[in-house]
Specification:
It is a single chain. This protein has one domain (3-87). It contains 2 helices and no strands. The protein has helices at residues 3-42, 48-87. The radius of gyration is 19 Å and the shape is elongated.
Length: 88
Amino acid sequence: MNEVDVLEVGQEALFVVLKTAGPIMLSGLAIGLIIALFQALTTIQEMTLTFVPKIIVIFFAIIVFLPFMMTTVIEFARQLFDRMVALG
């Protein structure tokens, strides 16, 4: 395994991390922007108003996107195992 292969595996790993964490982070960002806009328009500055909806949306996003995330990680693991077998 040379440097190019190592960099390729690292690049694929980072892409898998972005693919698995992206939907959850984007849903948290979207609900955060909506809540911030609501707070700016109504001048309500309560701390629980920011955290509770974010937690609920993130948990819901995890439940919804979990099959996609598991498929992505399992496919990446299979590719890594295939590379390991090819080396040995």
